Amino acid sequence: MSKIKDALDHARSEAQDLHKNIEASTAKDHAALRAEIQSTAARAQQLAGSLKTVVDGQRSDAKQHIKDAIAQLDDAAKHAGDVASASAAQLKELNAAMLAKVRDAVQSLSHAVASQRSTTAAK
Amino acid sequence: MDNYISVVFSNDQKAFDGLHALWRLDGTGDVTVHGAAVLHRDNFGDVQVATKQTDPGVRTAIGVAAGAAAGVGAAAGGFVGLTADAVKSGEHEEAAYESGFVLQNGQSAVVAEVSEDWTTPVDTAMTALGGMVFRRPKSSVRDDSFDPDYLYPYDYDPYFL
Question: For the complex shown, is ipTM > 0.85?
Fold first, then answer.
């Protein structure tokens, strides 16, 4: 149980860190922003993949929150596919879209953690 | 239980301390904070959301939206809430109902969405810092009336432009 909790907490921290990075990227120039979006997308995809391993063994409500987070991170990662030919303005839009998706993922993971903590406290 | 909380403080620094204290409670697992921000109402009645010092450009835009989302501004007569309905309605009663608290000129507040099994940890920590806690169950807030986008999903060093 504690391993699952630790994995969830870690995933939430990782998603929070992704959110911070994307926000910080907003002020970067065209080339740097392009690289940052690609890097962030890779991290989002990696996080989504690692979350798939912690879904099992969760209570149904936490499980649903984690599944939502996986979908939201996958969505965020998809934005990197449009980066190559994007203009500066389009890159900023992509960055904003990624920020929104990762924010949703943080929220989902936060609710999964809350569900896990509540279950633990009730025992 | 999922709640929206607002903690009113007499000044910015106390609100900043309150924000950090809230996230410390998250760190110890006493509550789970889904998002939080510090608001300030200046002596002219204008309300600002504290940004991160590292990204003022981003939060300036979000802060403007938060003014509407938080139900703040002169039109709402000083009520600070969590929902846009308070502003849309233009009715003080609606604003008070939706927000549950009033932010006076010169005061600051921590606004947050939290999951808490009991209210004691937040109440104890915030009261010790001089804060007054207001709380509304998330289930009693209409889904379409709350825009949490201006709440940071992690602790940050608040900064007013």
Answer: yes
